[in-house]
Amino acid sequence: MFVGIAVITIGFLLMIGGGSPDPKVFDESIFSTQRITVAPVLVILGLVIEVYAIMKKPKE
Q1: Residue 42 has what pLDDT?
Q2: Residue 46, Cβ neighbours under 10 Å: how many?
Q3: How many other C-beta atoms can be found within 10 angstroms of the C-beta atom of residue 16?
Q4: I need a labelling partner for 23 at 20 to 30 A (CA). Which of 11, 30, 31, 48 fits?
């Protein structure tokens, strides 16, 4: 489960930032591939890992 939490955390950290100090200036960096594609995929992958970790039967 810790691996899933780590992957989700990395995904959210990749989404951070992109704001402009001046609200009248548009910053194109919010549309980077990292924020639009990579980060959400990592978050979803982390959630899949979490579901697998919860549903997996423990070895006896």
Answers
A1: 97
A2: 20
A3: 9
A4: 11
Full 3-state SS string of the chain: CHHHHHHHHHHHHHHCCCCCCCCCCCCHHHHCHHHHHHHHHHHHHHHHHHHHHHHCCCCC
In sign, the C-alpha dihedral spanning 52, 53, 57, 60 is positive
Q: Digits of tens for pLDDT over the chain (60 positions)? A: 999 999 999 999 999 976 777 878 887 778 888 899 999 999 999 999 999 999 998 888
**Distance in angstroms (rounded) separating the CA atoms of residues 46 and 24:** 36
* pTM of the entire predicted model: 0.82
Q: Which two tokens stand for residue 54?
A: 């919860």
Tally Cβ neighbours within 10 Å of residue 11: 19
